UniProtKB/TrEMBL annotation:
Organism field: Morella rubra
The protein's name in its UniProt record: Uncharacterized protein
Top-level lineage group: Eukaryota
Region (Disordered): 281-300
């Protein structure tokens, strides 16, 4: 005769998984259904010997968790289709490779496609749906309320604002326009997030801050407003950096219309993409009530 496990006991056993899922869907505003698949993939990897992956992710900053989730989507696409038949800079998973203690690559997911499809589906049904359903429901309801609030704002009477006069600037050394509006890419009024890129590095090939600065300065001129490397222990390497540029147009030159690009700094591969900050909607919606179930934390 089997033992009966209550919902509270089941959730308490998966409290770490619940906390990470809550970060994905409540703090980072990621898609709740897609994030269920992401969690199932990570739990499958844990069973394959990538120990304590979920627990270690909880110690990471939100921006890194978000990037790891993006790479998990690439891995899921890999096991659900055969479209990724050769290595491509658009399908690299450098953060996941640097994060895991064991060797992992997209080739691993291709070689384990059938097992992966079955294992992820089983984990979704046997673990994720049972342990994460209440959090998913909260996220779905919160997102629906947010969409309603945004639609009501759009329908509200439009308040006319006075036109902002153009700013007259002298012609720059590169022939900048005489008249530039405050909303242009060169304006300091442009929010920092819209001028920020996220750089990731390969494990085993440490990249120093001065190398990133030197490469960007030589390639794009005096373009860096600030550069923030990941804080790492003395015997560990930084896996990512955030770079804020003076102008958003610098990012356009780097990306050339692509979502992610790969280049080489002193023989070491570096990936770059536009920085996606944690979404915040607290100004439109009241704070969420605490979960009624024990053993769950939704804080950072």
């Amino acid at each position: 005769m089997g033992f009966f496990v209550s919902r509270e006991e089941f959730n308490a056993f998966h409290s770490i998984d619940r906390e990470l899922y809550a970060i994905l869907v409540l703090n980072l505003w990621r898609d709740p259904i897609e994030s269920i698949q992401v969690m199932a993939l990570w739990l499958w990897l844990e069973r394959l010997g990538f120990k304590n992956a979920v627990k270690k992710m909880l110690s990471l900053p939100y921006v890194l968790i978000n990037e790891l989730a993006d790479e998990a989507i690439i891995c899921l696409n890999c096991i659900h289709s055969n479209l990724i038949s050769s290595p491509s800079e658009n399908y690299d998973i450098p953060l996941l490779q640097g994060f895991m203690e064991k060797e992992i690559s997209l080739q691993f997911f291709q070689e384990n496609r059938l097992n992966g499809v079955v294992a992820v589906a089983r984990t979704v049904n046997d673990v994720c749906i049972k342990a994460l359903m209440d959090i998913m429901q909260r996220a779905v309801e919160r997102n629906a309320a947010q969409s309603l609030a945004e639609s009501q704002m759009v329908m509200s009477p439009f308040i006319h604002q006075p036109l902002v006069p153009p700013v007259i600037r002298p012609v720059g050394p590169r022939g900048d326009d005489l008249v530039q509006h405050r909303t242009s890419a060169t304006s300091p009024d442009v929010q920092a997030d819209s001028r920020t890129m996220f750089f990731t590095f390969s494990k085993g090939y440490p990249v120093q801050e001065w190398e990133v600065r030197d490469f960007l300065t030589r390639s794009y001129g005096n373009c860096i407003e600030s550069l923030h490397m990941q804080e790492a222990n003395p015997h560990e390497q930084a896996l990512f950096a955030r770079v804020i540029f003076h102008k958003a147009s610098t990012m356009d030159m780097i990306l050339c219309g692509k979502g992610k690009v790969k280049f080489t700094i002193n023989g070491k591969h570096v990936w770059a993409r536009k920085f996606v900050p944690k979404r915040s909607k607290s100004s439109l919606l009241p704070p969420l009530p605490p979960s009624p179930l024990p053993g769950t934390s939704y804080g950072p």
